[in-house]
């Protein structure tokens, strides 16, 4: 495997780590399996190497990730702002995982920016911000967890990787690739999986823990959204699904159970873009936008241009401050603007 870090970067990483006693690990808002898996693997590794570690997520995560090793050690800024500030005010290093920009942490970002300590980014999102003391960001890699594994490997730390650390890394890689169904054709991915399997992980069980533990209401909701709410713009090989808080009242969903619904319309023949709109459950008047595309359609560009967001070429998101009807109109405008690329 090609090295991610130059000799100089590796030396710099070791010297930054050597100077740090208390490490603050952060991730992006709406933490997913990759954000959490990267954090828990890194938290465990650093602790075993003598560091004090505080891991903080900006807000809560889906219930289907609550089984992840060490996940209960991650603090939630939105819930415990004062506690987090108290626990991290003397941190002497910030390690940003699965995000390369301060603003992807929402309010937690303001706190992190106020800490005058070195920052290291380990990520796979395009366009990380300048300003980190060390930036390891590889958009071609399938998950931040893959970057984390490879960095640890180049540090010589994977030889004694524990079973639970391997579980965390695998979970990150598995969730960011939809169970290795997209963004996962590089041979290195499977070299790493083979290394993780050697640590005794049960990959089938991890898959079931994440994907086969939904409430019945999630699947009733999925049926409703596909049957009643999905609007197909056939001419543009695009689908739009909207979901309001009024509709949410009819379903007893666990946290995070609308995640992944955006993927289903892409299973329909010829579909190139799926857009899922949902009203934010906390912030009134905010519509969350999720986009998924196939092949070379750059839904991150569309997201940056129309939805105040960004992300990966085939998986991006953003948010709008408007009504649902207005949001649907904005999506249609965006789809018309990108019409040629969608009709290909
Ligand atoms: P999701 O649809 O799962 O919420 O987000 C999919 C991907 O889009 C995320 O992994 C992240 O890379 C990106 N993303 C989501 N929301 C935003 C946003 O507000 N800003 C940026 N830059 N990226 C986002
Ligand atoms: Mn990721």
Overview of this protein structure:
The protein has about 350 residues and is of the alpha/beta class. It contains 13 helices and twelve strands. It has helices at about 5-20, 35-50, 80-90, 105-115, 145-155, 165-175, 185-195, 205-210, 215-230, 245-250, 300-305, 325-335, 340-344, and strands at about 20-25, 50-55, 75, 95, 120-125, 135, 230-235, 240-245, 275-280, 285-295, 310, 315-320. A six-stranded parallel β-sheet has the order 3-2-1-4-5-6, sandwiched between helices. Strands 7-8-9-10-12-11 form a six-stranded mixed β-sheet. α4 (about 105-115) links the parallel β4 (about 95) and β5. α2 (about 35-50) packs parallel to α5 (about 145-155) and α6 (about 165-175) runs antiparallel to α7. The longest helix is centred in the N-terminal third of the chain and has 16 residues, at about 35-50. The chain is globular and about 55 Å long. Bound molecules: guanosine-5'-monophosphate and manganese (II) ion.
**SS-based structural class?**
alpha/beta
The largest β sheet comes out as:
6 strands, parallel
Number of strands: 12
What small molecules does this complex bind?
guanosine-5'-monophosphate, manganese (II) ion
Number of helices: 13
Strand content: 15-25%
Share in helix = 25-40%
**Bulk shape:** globular
Give me the secondary-structure topology:
Blueprint: H1 7-18, E1 22-26, H2 33-48, E2 52-57, E3 75-76, H3 81-88, E4 93-97, H4 107-114, E5 119-123, E6 134-137, H5 144-154, H6 163-176, H7 187-197, H8 203-211, H9 216-229, E7 231-233, E8 238-243, H10 245-248, E9 273-279, E10 286-293, H11 299-306, E11 310-311, E12 315-321, H12 324-337, H13 339-343
Parallel strand pairs: 1-2, 1-4, 2-3, 4-5, 5-6, 8-9
Antiparallel strand pairs: 7-8, 9-10, 10-12, 11-12
Helix pairs in contact: 2-5, 2-6, 5-6, 6-7, 6-8
Bound molecules: guanosine-5'-monophosphate and manganese (II) ion (MN).
Manganese (II) ion (MN) binds next to loops.
